[in-house]
Amino acid sequence: MNRGAASGRGSRPTRRTTGDPYGLAAARPFLAPLLSFAGLAAIGLLTFSLLTGSLPFLPSRGTGGDGPGNPGNGGPVVPGRTPSPSAPPVVNPDLGIDGQLVYAKAGNLWIQEGTEITQLTKTGRDAQPAWSEDGAWIYFIETRRTRVKFPVAGRPVWYDLSYPILSRIRPDGTDREAILSGLYKAGPSKQYTWSFFIRDPAVAPNGASVAVVSDGPDPTESNVVLGLVNVAKKRLGPLGLPENAPYGHQDPAWRPDGKLLLYVRNGRDGARGAPTIWRYDVETKKTSRYSQPGYTEPLYSPNGRYVVATKTNALGTDIVILDARNANELLRVTANGQAWGGAWSPDGTQVAFLQLAGSTTDLRVATLVRGANGDLSVEEIEPLTEFSGLDATSRPAWWGPRPTPAPTPTAAPSTSPVP
Length: 419
Fold this sequence. Notes:
Layout (H helix, E strand, L loop, with lengths): L96 E9 L2 E7 L1 E4 L6 E6 L6 E15 L2 E15 L7 E5 L1 E4 L5 E4 L3 E5 L5 E6 L10 E6 L4 E4 L10 E6 L5 E6 L2 E2 L2 E2 L2 E6 L5 E3 L5 E6 L5 E8 L2 E8 L5 E4 L6 E6 L5 E8 L2 E12 L4 E8 L13 E3 L15 E3 L2
Antiparallel strand pairs: 1-2, 1-28, 2-3, 4-5, 5-6, 6-7, 8-9, 10-11, 11-12, 12-13, 14-15, 15-18, 16-17, 18-19, 20-21, 21-22, 22-23, 24-25, 25-26, 26-27, 26-29
């Protein structure tokens, strides 16, 4: 969510957040939001910025297709062409999916079932979809623009401001509803307006709250940290968790039973970002470190046994599978430095993720198997969309009824789907 530039003269209002709140100069293979300030300038421009050289306009390292035998290729390069923002995503006709997968393109949400896609929103302002546990709602972040007045050194100054709204919509596109606006009122008579960030919605399994990262409800007093939005009361409450100020938090993810909440606590190691996954116990309200530095975007598998995450290194980002108990890395799904944003299939046997494909962002699906000794492996990686130019800062979200566990076989096969 980009903050609008000032349209008036003078300095910008002061706020506590400074620097890069996410500490992710090396966390993503695309250009995106970073909070930056200069001197007294304290209006944030939120972009995720990756300095590893894995930028979306650079050509892919390979020109062939993806797969377990060729994991380093990013897909075919199409010189001199860019996808049309108004065109629907191009779905692989040979790869149907179970359940419903929602993703974003050009600020609009799309739902895919099987090989059929349907446009869910048409505002050009929507991003970061997340399903409710029962599949009744898709939560997302809408960004609107308005003109506001805010004081600097005691003198009101006019600004063009972009602000977020936590919203939700039914999977059939009806009942669109705003849950929480990022607009913030200040001044003795509440005559001034500013805004706070709302990002990375993650709906609690009971549907009563949504975890987000935000510097609200008062952006002059907080960094971008983990909080909970009460859906019924439409109110944001920060959790007061530890942080490496001013880098803040990101990427909340609930365990399926709702007892634990993963999130990323950002920091720095010299000039590089050092994001680390932490774990919040809802009952005890205590936190503990879950992973070593270098991991972002955690998401529990449907059975809670695994966590898919994005691993960062000097060359870019890759999709990995972690042990949910101790964050031991069980499987490197990709090895091309150009993949991020993993989402589990409803049955936990596949992971969809974003990847640079030539010069555009597309979706890939990895099918996982578990050997007789319990080791995980990638059976195949296939393109789900082709040359579609999806929104790189919006990870996909996958929903579907969870299958009834099958009876334990008397003789286990050499490999079996995961889990």
